[in-house]
Design a protein that fits this description.
By secondary structure, the chain is mainly alpha-helical. The chain is globular. Helix 10 (213-234) runs antiparallel to helix 11. Helix content is 65%, strand content 0%.
């Protein structure tokens, strides 16, 4: 014999194993409680792993060099470092996710600044642009016309029709390991989560479209600057490399300071920190 128990009726029972509706509400509120200091501790743990990984890998390279061994001996340490760094970057994504929902810290400005500077910027995105994509996914989940995940999955080449069998999942992962497919996947993620793009995003302001140049300038600075300073670094002209970096950074910041506010792309979600400040901070 089977019986069903509705949520409402369960909330009125006095059994110790069941919580009333009010108790559930209070438990949820407790889990949602935020402050302005706890997550600094967990963020520090992520950075401790990151710094330790880089430091130990460099130390390992030094041991190989001092022993006069071939660079092939660096491969094991490099592979381990890549996996750990990949996991760390994924944790940065988790931090940005919490910041996107304004639950990283109680203070919204602190929430945005820490999420940007310590998690989003290191992985080439911002909390606001990810919020455009992610909140739309939450609000319109599985809506083919308005859920940005559909557009991103199709553009990125990793769309799978559910339910997915184990072999289909493995084949899908294998396809993404092919370099051209990996680039396609990265570009789709970049467009949606890092640049706030996407034709179907329901939060886009179709009237106040702004200019594409602030985004283009940011991308040009990010991609071109390393190539400008690389020749000087290879020749160990570090002072010249620093001057080139300083000049490129100053020129980009001046552009963002002078460009009209109307040039920044608008959306139906108001930014916690202005677009101008965010763009300058990312430089």
């Amino acid at each position: 014999m089977t019986s069903s128990l509705s949520v409402e009726s369960a909330g009125t029972m006095d059994a110790g194993s069941l919580m009333s509706k009010e108790e559930r509400r209070q438990a949820i509120e407790t889990l949602k409680a935020r402050d302005n200091w706890t997550n600094f501790y967990y963020l520090a743990q992520v950075y401790a792993v990151l710094i330790a990984t880089v430091g130990l890998t460099i130390w390992s390279y030094g041991l190989v060099a001092d022993a006069g061994l071939s660079w092939w001996w660096n491969i094991p340490a490099t592979i381990v470092a890549v996996f750990i760094m990949g996991g760390t970057q994924h944790q940065f994504g988790g931090v940005v996710h919490e910041g996107t929902h304004h639950i990283l810290f109680k203070n919204r400005i602190l929430n945005e600044v820490v999420s940007d500077w310590f998690a989003a910027f290191p992985i080439f995105t911002s909390t606001y642009t990810f919020r455009l994509h992610h909140l739309a996914h939450h609000q319109f989940v599985n809506d083919k016309a308005r859920d940005p995940n559909f557009e991103m999955a199709h553009e990125g080449g990793y769309w799978l029709d559910f339910p997915v069998e184990h072999i289909e999942l493995l084949i899908g992962i294998g396809r993404l390991l092919w370099l051209p497919n990996s680039v396609r996947y990265i570009m789709a993620r970049l467009k949606q989560s890092s640049l706030g793009g996407g034709k179907t995003n329901p939060y886009a302001d179709r009237v106040r479209k702004g200019s594409s140049w602030p985004i283009k300038i940011g991308v040009i600075y990010t991609i071109l600057t390393p190539f400008l300073i690389l020749p000087f670094q290879l020749q160990k002209m570090y002072f010249a490399a620093g001057l080139v970096l300083l000049a490129a950074t100053a020129a980009t910041i001046i552009y963002f300071l002078l460009v009209p506010e109307s040039s920044f792309q608008k959306s139906r979600l108001n930014p916690t920190v202005s677009h101008r400040v965010t763009q300058i901070s990312r430089t």
